[in-house]
Every structure is written in structure tokens, then in C-alpha cells.
Amino acid sequence: xxxxxxxxxxxxxxxxxxxxxxxxxxxxxxxxxxxxxxxxxxxxxxxxxxxxxxxxxxxxxxxxxxxxxxxxxxxxxxxxxxxxxxxxxxxxxxxxxxxxxxxxxxxxxxxxxxxxxxxxxxxxxxxxxxxxxxxxxxxxxxxxxxxxxxxxxxxxxxxxxxxxxxxxxxxxxxxxxxxxxxxxxxxxxxxxxxxxxxxxxxxxxxxxxxxxxxxxxxxxxxxxxxxxxxxxxxxxxxxxxxxxxxxxxxxxxxxxxxxxxxxxxxxxxxxxxxxxxxxxxxxxxxxxxxxxxxxxxxxxxxxxxxxxxxxxxxxxxxxxxxxx
Amino acid sequence: xxxxxxxxxxxxxxxxxxxxxxxxxxxxxxxxxxxxxxxxxxxxxxxxxxxxxxxxxxxxxxxxxxxxxxxxxxxxxxxxxxxxxxxxxxxxxxxxxxxxxxxxxxxxxxxxxxxxxxxxxxxxxxxxxxxxxxxxxxxxxxxxxxxxxxxxxxxxxxxxxxxxxxxxxxxxxxxxxxxxxxxxxxxxxxxxxxxxxxxxxxxxxxxxxxxxxxxxxxxxxxxxxxxxxxxxxxxxxxxxxxxxxxxxxxxxxxxxxxxxxxxxxxxxxxxxxxxxxxxxxxxxxxxxxxxxxxxxxxxxxxxxxxxxxxxxxxxxxxxxxxxxxxxxxxxxxxxxxxxxxxxxxxxxxxxxxxxxxxxxxxxxxxxxxxxxxxxxxxxxxxxxxxxxxxxxxxxxxxxxxxxxxxxxxxxxxxxxxxxxxxxxxxxxxxxxxxxxxxxxxxxxxxxxxxxxxxxxxxxxxxxxxxxxxxxxxxxxxxxxxxxxxxxxxxxxxxxxxxxxxxxxxxxxx
Lengths: 324, 509
Known about the structure:
By secondary structure, chain A is mainly alpha-helical. Helices cover 72% and strands 0% of the residues of chain A.
């Protein structure tokens, strides 16, 4: 039983990585007042580029760099449309998502002729598990040792990067001078402008961080979690990350916990024990579909106000213009 | 001593085809308080926005401290020693005072360090200029008077030698305004230059050394304050003689038209906006509700007019009783004989992208007079609109023109025309002259008095104390959702009302 719990938690962690990375990216953009539905597209683009570059260079790290690159390119496109040209931010995001959906498949077909898939990556070109020091030695030490071995040790580099990204985001947003400007830009851009800081520059800076994290979340899918890119690989994960960010009220730690909670549901939904438990309550035919739905249902319940009112940054979605 | 702090030469600024500033020149002496007065839309704010780098002038020159200076952004203005306190405060509500002051002047990467460095400097400024504010208080917990201090501190912290204040007293009680003037006096003594933009003559006379008058984008006169008077300034502002005091006969109140009993209202975010308010308005009298904006007047009006539903208490309107259990929307209220001129005319009063003739029947568009069997009767609407425009002196009198293209005063006249023509029993009117030029103010005020003399009940809500005092027969003062007291207009004075507006009850004062 205890081992089962640890294994589920371990799976939760692994599932949560793309959510956590993307949610942190979302926090940067939205705290600066730029809506980011485009996490989905950045994730998908990042997944494709990471797998492709890793295949060509046989290096997961080059793949990651490529993913970061495409993330930044997408977020700059979003920035150009919605910050510089003051377009509708939601429309720009939707465009990026559709663009990513189409482009990745077209390029994958053109380059690899595998029906929108990229070639399987060898071990060397993937992010493999890292055993932390003393994991083996502590393995049999009750509880603490087991947690260390199963839960903390034995993940790939991106898992650790994701969970370092959380305190990093929290520090930048709340404890750095840049964070003060970032938050002020999202709350009252006019006030920022009158103090002599450029609103648009601050928003672009936020979007660069957003692109980096968004691209990385994609790289995790195709070069760490799996070893190839496949059509529509992100499958709505970007939206779930966005939902987690809102449930966490645009704060890094609560957003991380929301990501973990959603991931937990993903982790248990395929466990036979859960299936047996719920078999009596739901018709068996529907049960599988229901379990598949559960993370999404929870998202809706949370967003419908179950966790209390989520107050967005005041100026979110508003292009900045002096001329009113 | 008498060096020039600011000199503007031949400033021109156009927004599309609208000329906001035309060949404007201005000289402001160092160490003085210089007033710029003019009606809404006279170009005062535009001129100051050019000086603060918010807009660029199309042509013209700016000199600061006798050096020609190019100001392209707020950043340049701050560097030239210019600070500005905007009409709508430029503060981040969720930040503390200290964070707001530091914003934009941070040093280094760590916020903690910047805040620490600035703390002492800010405390020194607070002491030097008697601008005490708790530096760790969050802005949205502070009253507006203190928020304004934060704005002044922000400017001083950035080394401002020249401070521009745009309509600074709009949100203040008379006492707070006096306090602000003392602060400005203090700043002048310490050698700072203050430019005060306002449309209130009283403020110009009370505090300034020199005054410049603007009208329709042009600078029409410069005067020493000691050598001019209110009447002359008013005439310069409007371009013709105006009556500052409106004349009216004593009221002849009849039977109660509107009775409000124990009305309570809590808004969507759970803030208790109106607290147990009771009063009545009789036919043939004007009841004024005074108060600093944001003290529940808006919500009270919205409940009375049926825009927000009644939660607690009861309303009696022209013998119809309205209870929380019976929903009564704005249309029902109208049927019972109420008309409403809303305080936010652009949001609630008009569809600004519709033409004047469409706006003038808005809400009454089902009236058979405007309808044929299936289609609307365009000719009838046009004729009706044309007639109303002439009657209410709406300029230009073109029924086809889009509502957004009329000036504030003429938009308001359109709404007043629409509502007053319905022969109501009760008129509810909010901020009737906000953003309206003096000429139109006089006209609208006369219409309101005429309604009263025709035996209608009038409920007037306004944040302009002068307006309340000159129109009302009875005055109620609201503070924090409550009615603080009732004063007969003939016994009222600004000081007593000011205390009530600040939440000080008579017994205590």
C-alpha cells in the first residue's frame, strides 16, 4: 500500500512537469497584463522542435534549446500582435494555437514521412533519470529513505528544472525590482507609464520568460516523458496549465499545487484499484470515460468559484494605449 | 527670484480634426502657484499632458528653467524636474505606499534592497513637507486625500521642482481641499513651482498667485490673481457674461412622490454600499444628495431607478409600493412615473455610436408615435428629434449626427430632453453637469428648477457642492453608505456640509 502511494505520487510528479512549467510561464505573461491562451501552442511547438532537433543533433539539450527558441518566437508573435499592434489578445492566442497544430504536423510529415510523428529518439538523445547521491544507500531506510529514493531521486533533469522554476518565479515576481514593474504593469499600466517606465518593454520582457518556460514544457513531452513527437501531443495540457494558474490565483506556489492536484487525478485514473472502487457507483461502461474526464471536471468546478473568487490582474487583456 | 520655471511658446496640438491647443503660450514664474482655468474641453489637460510628455505637440517649444527642452515621455519630464499629480491617480491599488513611490526608480535587482534604500528618503520628505502617510499602508485602504499625498510624494521623490496638479480637488471634501492648499502653500515656500489646473473659480482665488484662462483650445488671458475677480474670470472662460447664482422662488412641497424606507444594498463583491437609508421626496421640491463620490450615492440611485434590484427595505413611488420580493426593473419604474438622467451619460445615458434621433427615443422606442405597423416611423422620429433639439438648444441640431460627436454639454442636453419630455412625476438626476460647460450648466439648472416649479419631485445627486447648494431645497449628505444628516438649503453652508461629507456628525462637531 505504502509503495503504491509512493508510486502514485511519483507518477503525479512526472505528469505535473509540463503543467508546472507552462503555468509559471503563464504567470509571467498574465501578471504583466497579457492573456496567454497560447501556452497550448507553445507546448506543442516546443515538443515538435525538441524532438526534431534532438533527432538531428542526437542531443536532448540542443532539443531543449530549440524548444525554448520556438517558445520565444511564438511569444514574440503574440507580443507583436497584442502588445505592439494592440490586437485582441485572445484572438492572437487562438491563432498561435491553430498555427502550431498545423505547422508541426506539416513539417513532421515533410521531413520524416511518418504520419505526423518524429523518429524514435535513442536514450542518449533523451532526458534520462538522474540518480541523486546516496539514493541506493538510503533506499531501505524507512519512510525518509523511501521517499528520497522513489519520489525525490530518479527523475530527469527537466523535472528538477520545473520545480526550481517555481521558487524562481516566486522570487522574480514578488521579490525582485523587475517583479514590481511586472505586477504594476498588469495592475495599472498608466501608472507605470507616468513613472517613466515603458509598459510595452516590460510586457515583452515578461513574454520572453513566458516563451522560455512554455517551450520547455513542450520539450518535456517529447524528449523526456516520451521519445518522439506525435500529432496533437499537448492534448489540452496548455489549457489545463492555464486553469491551474487561475485556480492558484496567479501565484506560483498555489499554481504549482493546483498542477499537482490535476496531475494526481491523471495519475490515479488508470489504476485498477480506483476502477474497482468506483465500479459499484457508476455503470462500468461510463466509468472509463468518467475517469478520463475527471481532471477536466475538477478544473471546471474549481474555476466556477469553488476555491473562492480569483481576481485577475486588473489590466489583463487590455492593450496599453495612451490615447484612451 | 523671478526666474521663469516653464515657458511654452506657440504650442499646437490636433487630435484628428479636433484642435485641442492652438498657439498656446504660457510663462510660469519660479516659486509661484500658477492657476490654469477653463471649462471642460478647453484644452487645459491636453496642454499639461504635452508638458509631461504624455502627448507630443504638433508644433511649438517648451523651455524648462530657461533651457529649451524636448519632452518625449514621462521619463524626459521627470528628468527635467517636472512632476504631475493626475486627476485619476496613477497608483497601483494593491501595492503599498512605499512600493508605489519606488516603482520606476528601483536600484539593483533585489526589491528588498530598493525599498530599504528609499525608506529613509521618503520619510525625510514626509517630514519636510508635512505629508504624513504610513509608508507600509496598501493604497486601496487609504482615503483619497491620502492617496493624493502619495502622488505628491511620488513626484517630490523623483526630484520634481515643478509640480502640476490636474483638477486635484474633484475627489476631496472642502476640508481636505483646504488641507491640500496648505500643502501647496508649503511647497511654494520651499521654492517649488506649482501649476494648478481647475475649473473652479473659488480655488483660483483662494490659492494662486497668477492665473491663465483657456477657452476652446486657446489661451485667452493672463492675470495676476490679486488684480482680477470671479466674475471677470467666469466671463473670460465662457466668452460672455454668466450668472453664477441661479435665481429661484421658494419651494412649494406637496405630497410625497418617492419614499425610501430602510434601503440597504450590498454589491457583488460583498461590500456594504448603502446602509439603512430612509428619506422622502415631495412633489414641487428638489432634494439634493451631497457627498464625496464613492460613498454609496451611485448605488442608491441605481436601486431607486431599478437598475439594481432592491435587496432590503422598501420604495414607494407615486403610490406604488416596491418590495424586494417584487422585482421592478427600470422599465417598471418608468411606467410608475419616474425618469432618470444617469450620472454616467456615456455608459448609461446614451449609445454613443447611435445617432441623436435614435438616442432621443431610447427606452421609449415602443411608443406608437414612433412606430408604423412593422417598421419604425423614421420621419416621425426625425421630426420629433429636430423639435427637441431646438427646444433644448442642442448644438449642432442635426438629428443624424452620432451621439459621440456632440460635446459633453450637448450630450447631456439630449438626455435631459429625452427624459423631461415624458411628463414624469419624479425626476432622478445624477451629476447633471459633470463635464458640461458653464453655458450648458446654466441651461440645465434652469430646466431642473422649471421641473420643480411645475410640481414635479426632483432627486438630485451631485458631488459638486456648489450645484447642490444652488439647486436644492433640502440637502442630504451621504458618507460611507449612510445619510449623515439633513440640512435645509437656506441654512446650509459649505463648512457644515463638508464636515458631514467627511463623516463627522453634528453632535460631534
